[in-house]
Design the sequence.
């Protein structure tokens, strides 16, 4: 019997303004990204689950992750893609040796979802499940001015403006001032959650390719995000034949210097998986 492949695709063009103090986080291409990645996954032999905008709550995403974890066994494959805003919140539980620690977040419909929450869910998968995560979002710290993240020249090249408001509108960055205000509102909740997660666990065994470096911004688009659109071009409807690391390098070569996708290995996924062609079931 062959391996099973399950995939989960999350795309948010807006968030719930009632949960984000009136901000709706409107983007153009995230639902398209999720649909296109779901189609890619189906063509590759995965059974896909698609969550769009108001379906992308913490409860909905967590339930979908746990359903996949319950089904997959050693040798099976799980693909997770996310397109939407990214943010960061301070991690005040990290200890005095890391006073500036930050947790990256996925900006889900009802609240921000900590990277450690995602790690906890991925760590529930059985040992030997091949997990690939693709994140098309910004990861930019609250308290850092947008104009300090990139040079004016790079901002103008990528977004056509150096005005922070214009950059925030054209990128998948949760506005910096909004991040700070919401963190102050929800500080006690996040501190308690971070303590719980810190006590919890081990790193998941997974491979992550994200849209940009921590100090960069991910561009939205009319049809696809810059990262997702480039990835789809490299994949070439299944014509691509290299491994994961070569796939990352091929995407990187087609991206502007101001947005450099990152390849990150969490835990100890098998070396054979890293060398494997992406999206192999």
Sequence:
């Amino acid at each position: 019997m062959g391996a099973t492949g399950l995939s989960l695709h999350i795309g948010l063009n807006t968030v719930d303004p009632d949960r984000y103090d009136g901000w709706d986080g409107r983007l153009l291409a995230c639902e398209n990204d999720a649909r296109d990645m779901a189609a890619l996954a189906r063509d590759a032999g995965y059974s896909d689950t698609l969550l769009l905008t108001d379906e992308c709550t913490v409860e909905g995403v967590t339930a979908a992750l746990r359903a996949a974890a319950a089904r997959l066994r050693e040798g099976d494959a799980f693909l997770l893609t996310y397109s939407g805003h990214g943010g960061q919140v301070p991690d005040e539980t990290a200890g005095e040796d890391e006073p500036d620690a930050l947790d990256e977040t996925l900006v889900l419909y009802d609240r921000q979802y900590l990277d450690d929450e995602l790690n906890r869910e991925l760590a529930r998968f059985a040992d030997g499940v091949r997990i690939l995560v693709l994140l098309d979002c910004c990861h930019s710290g609250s308290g850092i001015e947008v104009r300090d993240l990139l040079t004016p020249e790079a901002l103008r090249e990528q977004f056509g403006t150096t005005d922070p408001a214009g950059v925030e509108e054209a990128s998948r960055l949760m506005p910096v001032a909004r991040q700070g205000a919401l963190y102050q509102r929800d500080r006690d909740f996040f501190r308690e959650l971070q303590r719980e997660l810190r006590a919890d666990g081990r790193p998941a065994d997974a491979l992550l390719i994200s849209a940009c470096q921590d100090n960069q911004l991910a561009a939205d688009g009319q049809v696809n995000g810059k990262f997702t659109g480039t990835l789809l071009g490299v994949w070439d409807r299944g014509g691509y034949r290299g491994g994961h690391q070569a796939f990352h390098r091929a995407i990187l070569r087609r991206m502007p210097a101001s947005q450099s996708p990152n390849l990150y290995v969490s835990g100890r996924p098998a070396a054979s998986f890293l060398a494997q062609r992406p999206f192999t079931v």
About this structure: Residues 5-275 form a domain with the Rossmann fold fold (CATH 3.40.50.1460). Residues 234 and 250 are 7 Å apart (CA to CA).
